[in-house]
Design a protein that fits this description.
CATH superfamily of the largest domain: Nucleotide-binding domain of ferredoxin-NADP reductase (FNR) module
Strand order of the largest sheet: 4-3-6-1-2-5
Largest sheet: 6 strands, antiparallel
CATH architecture of the largest domain: 3-Layer(aba) Sandwich
Order of helices and strands: HHEEEEEHEEHEHEEHEHEEEHEEEEE
Number of helices: 8
Radius of gyration: 25 Å
Number of domains: 3
Number of strands: 19
Strand content: 25-35%
Helix content: 25-40%
């Protein structure tokens, strides 16, 4: 045997041993990962069973609040926080971190005022005497004829310290759970607001809980409450802050002003997060959430550990749900009767929600958020059944439905 052949056999033996070692290591890691997924899937999801006092201590209808403080929160001066105190001076009921408030606003128009309903996330942990919402001014889309956001412009330009606002009690099913499971908060743009509520609550009430925050914006001028976040990260070793800039400005310094250049995506999460049964909470623009939810499912995160809240009527499709419009599966021959309007109309697949169907048929229905959050379009069902395209955040009264997020399941008669 030549020296070259002997050397080749030696190299081959080393490579073979290395391959066996890596194969065994990978197999053990894969077994640990599968066991971890099984344990994670069995963990209870406590968010659906909050303490009883937090689900019953509320108020009916709208309550008058006074604006106690108004604070600009970013360098671009596009996000403003409003601190609200109850006019009656009574203590405020606690809420679940991540929930929102519903406002009834009298917005001036050219001729008079128009009443509109809008929902905004609470942006702080619960306090007995103050609520806080942080609202971004929505500008007119570039190069379009659409006006700027009416409610956000109203808040920024006309709501001042001392202004009185009509507010419905906190609501919503998007909130952090009360377990000690490690949590990952992901906020894109103004989607940071419910994350601030969750973060502040977790660090105050569960200081030993592992919390990660991935906060994505275009650049440093869009960061909300940067000093507050950095102070929390410095004070709490279990809190890990990751600021992500997709389009940093020339004076935004890597590692000083932000930790990651680019958008928040699953490759970043996989690189940063240890292998643990995290609960993921996501709020931000629809494209960001749609890609993250799908990628987390592909990564193997259990469905029960992925929680998200979309802006407005956006809908994020999970892989384990039907991807077709439920109205496409309905039998033909369904008739929708609007009792007060005296109209009886055949339902057609693709007609949209019952609210859209009513409006297209010339039937006026009060509405607000058009996303199942505010309850303005709640309507009594006289007979028949409806189906929800997505679970609403506002819980309708028994025997009623939210027209903006449901369709008829059978022929139905509505009090409208």
């Amino acid at each position: 045997m030549t020296s070259l052949a002997l050397l080749l056999w030696i190299v081959l033996g080393i490579v073979l041993q290395l391959a066996i070692y890596l194969g065994i290591g990978f197999w053990r890691h894969w077994q640990d990962y599968q066991a971890l997924r099984s344990r994670a899937a069995d963990l209870p999801v406590i968010r659906d069973a909050p303490p009883a006092e937090e689900t019953t201590t509320t108020w009916p209808g709208f309550r008058t609040f006074r604006v106690e403080r108004k604070v600009i929160e970013d360098a671009a001066q596009s996000v403003c926080s409003f601190y609200l105190v109850p006019e009656d001076g009574q203590p405020l009921p606690p809420f679940l971190p991540g929930q929102f408030l519903t406002f009834r606003l009298d917005v001036p128009t050219v001729e008079a005022t128009e009443q509109i309903i809008r929902c905004y996330s609470l942006s702080d942990a619960p306090h007995p005497d103050t609520y806080r919402v942080s609202i971004k001014r929505v500008p007119a889309p570039p190069g379009s004829d659409y006006p700027p956001g009416r409610s956000s412009s109203f808040f920024h330009d006309q709501v001042v310290v001392g202004s009185r606002l009509q507010v419905r009690a906190p609501a919503g099913h998007f909130h952090v759970d009360r377990s000690d499971a490690p949590v990952v908060l992901i906020g894109g743009g103004i989607g940071i607001t419910p994350m601030l509520s969750m973060l502040n609550w977790c660090l105050a009430e569960q200081p030993g809980r592992e919390v990660w925050l991935f906060y994505g914006v275009r650049h440093g001028r869009e960061l909300v409450m940067k000093s507050h976040l950095e102070a929390l990260a410095a004070a709490h070793p279990n809190f890990h802050l990751r600021l992500c800039f997709s389009d940093p400005l020339p004076d935004d310094l890597a590692e000083h002003d932000y930790q990651h250049r680019g958008r928040v995506d699953v490759s970043l999460l996989r690189a940063q997060l240890p292998l643990k049964p995290y609960h993921f909470y996501i709020c931000g623009p629809t494209p960001m959430m749609a890609s993250l939810v799908s990628a987390l499912e592909d990564w193997g995160v259990p469905d029960a550990h992925i929680h998200f809240e979309a802006f407005g009527p956006a809908s994020i499709q999970r892989k384990n749900t039907l991807t077709t419009d439920p109205s496409q599966a309905m039998d033909s021959g369904i008739v929708v009767t609007f009792a007060q309007s005296g109209k009886q109309l055949p339902w057609q697949p693709g007609s949209g929600s019952l609210l859209e169907f009513a409006e297209a048929s010339g039937i006026a229905v009060n509405s607000g958020c058009r996303a199942g959050g505010c309850g303005t379009c709640q309507t009594t069902i006289r007979s028949g059944e409806v189906a929800y395209r997505q679970a609403p955040d506002y819980d309708p009264e028994p025997g009623s439905c939210l027209l903006c997020v449901c369709i008829p399941k059978t022929s139905v008669t509505l009090e409208a």
